Amino acid sequence: MARCLVVSPDDQLRHTLGGSLASLPEPLLVKFVPRYPQAHEFGRLIDTVKPKVIFLDMCNLEAGSPIARQTLRMMDQMAPGLVRIGFDWSMTPDVLLDSMRAGMRGFVSAPFSGETIQEALTGLGIQTAGVC
To answer: Which site from 10, 20, 75, 81 is most exposed, i.e. has the minimal number of CB atoms within 10 Å?
Structure first.
């Protein structure tokens, strides 16, 4: 089964994205992380879940959260090849630019749908069946 991580301290945003991931045609194993993880937790998540993609909430990064920025640095160091897709409530030019600077390869904004998630993954050359 395909695997992914969804990292977001925003319960509603995480739940909304999760519903869209559940509507994809292929079954996914999704691990939800309700906060930006510390290094030891992130390493354990990568080792145990073995995700192909991580969806990262960009809301706190946009607000300049040091914890969100630390999570990005950990991703660069501990999982440099992991595909990262940013997500947020909206896609403003500033949010999109922050996302690109943070190394996101894709971005989706609410309202999410299985189709928009599928398009983001396909646009990155990723087959849904082997992604998350």
So the answer is: 81
